[in-house]
């Protein structure tokens, strides 16, 4: 569509395409430069507050590849952030999303609210690379959750998290000394550990909503084998169940672990091994034939999992009960 404007013409489709172009951001300096903010006070970490700067953004929506860690709190603001490839999700007041580097996200602004108090912490992986937090950062699985699996905070929880963020900001905004790095990282770790606690609380308080997750899993895996999908797709994967249950794989696994004590992968293996036990005791099929029929590409992998779950090889299991 071409729209005239006083002798000039604008291609709206082209403008929309540009607006939707993916912006790659690799550093804290690039974040500040892109949003027209002042030079960052620390080269590896920053905190952006909606009311202080983001409300001046003229771009209505865009996608960006952020090669930084991103922790965002929504608190009385009207911005939407959603992971690329998923439906947009306008997460509620007092809720948080966590994004690891190398993810593609979409940023949308619906309107401006002068009461916006939301904020985002962004930090470069180099900030924590040589620290104990750097070694453990992958254990914070919520960095791989989808945006619609946000952490919803109570007023007290929101205040606790915000106070920690303020300590982090004060530390990197002050004169940098030999202790600054340690204190910034320790407060980051404290914030993340509180979020672990709050996610556990969220899982617990939503038990009534999630108590049928294990039964849904059982229904889906039974249907998978009853419809012989393993013949084409092999043994079912964690990603398969995530898509089938409309959850990110990490969120589903953490939710199952909270409810049953076992991860999604463990549930998959338990179901398959129980089927294998029945076949071993009620047929003359070889272990290899059973492995192939269950969707294993390599019988050796089947034997490895079987022994891990039962402490015996498939042949020894069959012999022990005959």
In short:
This protein is α+β, with helices and mostly antiparallel strands. Helix content is 47%, strand content 16%. Helix 9 (238-244) crosses helix 10 (249-260) and helix 11 (264-282) crosses helix 14 (314-320).
Describe this protein's structure:
The chain has helices at 12-19, 28-34, 132-136, 155-173, 180-205, 207-210, 213-226, 230-233, 238-244, 249-260, 264-282, 287-293, 299-310, 314-320, and strands at 2-5, 8-11, 22-25, 45-49, 61-66, 69-74, 79-83, 95-99, 103-109, 119-123, 151-152. The chain has 322 residues and is α+β, with helices and mostly antiparallel strands. The chain folds into two domains: 2-153, Sandwich (Jelly Rolls), CATH 2.60.120; 210-320, Arc Repressor Mutant, subunit A (Orthogonal Bundle). It has a five-stranded antiparallel beta sheet. Strands 3-5-9-7 form a four-stranded mixed beta sheet. It has a two-stranded antiparallel ribbon with strand order 1-2. A hairpin with a 2-residue loop joins strand 1 and strand 2 (8-11). Helix 4 (155-173) runs antiparallel to helix 5, helix 9 packs across helix 10 and helix 11 (264-282) crosses helix 14 (314-320).
CATH topology of the largest domain: Jelly Rolls
Low-confidence stretches: 1-10, 77-91
β-strand amount: 15-25%
Shape: elongated
Content-based structural category:
alpha+beta
Average residue-wise pLDDT: 82
What's the end-to-end separation, in Å? Answer: 76 Å
The ordered H/E elements are EEHEHEEEEEEEHEHHHHHHHHHHH
């Amino acid at each position: 569509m071409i729209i005239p404007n006083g002798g000039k013409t604008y291609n709206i489709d082209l403008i929309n395409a540009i607006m939707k172009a993916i912006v790659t951001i690799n550093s804290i300096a690039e974040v500040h430069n892109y949003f027209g903010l002042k030079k960052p006070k620390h080269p590896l970490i920053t905190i952006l507050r909606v009311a202080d700067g983001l409300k001046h953004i003229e771009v209505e929506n865009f996608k960006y590849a952020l090669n930084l860690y991103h922790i965002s709190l929504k608190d009385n603001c009207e911005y939407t952030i959603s992971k690329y490839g998923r439906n947009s999700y306008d997460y509620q007041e007092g809720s948080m999303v966590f994004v690891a580097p190398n993810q593609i996200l979409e940023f949308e602004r619906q309107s401006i609210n002068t009461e916006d108090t939301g904020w985002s912490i962004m930090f470069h992986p180099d900030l924590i690379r040589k620290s104990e937090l750097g070694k453990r950062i992958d254990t914070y699985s919520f960095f791989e959750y989808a945006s619609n699996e946000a952490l919803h905070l109570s007023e007290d929880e929101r205040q606790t998290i915000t106070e920690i963020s303020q300590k982090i900001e004060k530390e990197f905004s002050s004169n940098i000394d030999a202790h600054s790095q340690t204190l910034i990282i320790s407060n980051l770790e404290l914030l993340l550990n509180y979020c672990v606690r709050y996610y556990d609380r969220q899982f617990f308080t939503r038990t009534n909503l999630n108590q049928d997750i294990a039964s849904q899993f059982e229904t889906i895996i039974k249907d998978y084998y009853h419809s012989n999908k393993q013949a084409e797709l092999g043994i079912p994967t964690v990603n398969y169940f995530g898509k089938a249950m409309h959850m990110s794989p990490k969120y589903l696994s953490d939710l199952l672990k909270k409810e049953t004590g076992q991860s999604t992968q463990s549930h998959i293996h338990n179901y398959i091994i129980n089927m294998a036990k029945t076949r071993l005791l009620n047929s003359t099929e070889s272990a290899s034939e059973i492995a192939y029929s269950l969707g294993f590409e390599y019988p050796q992998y089947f034997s490895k999992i079987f022994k891990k779950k039962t402490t015996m090889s498939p042949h020894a299991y069959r012999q022990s009960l005959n």
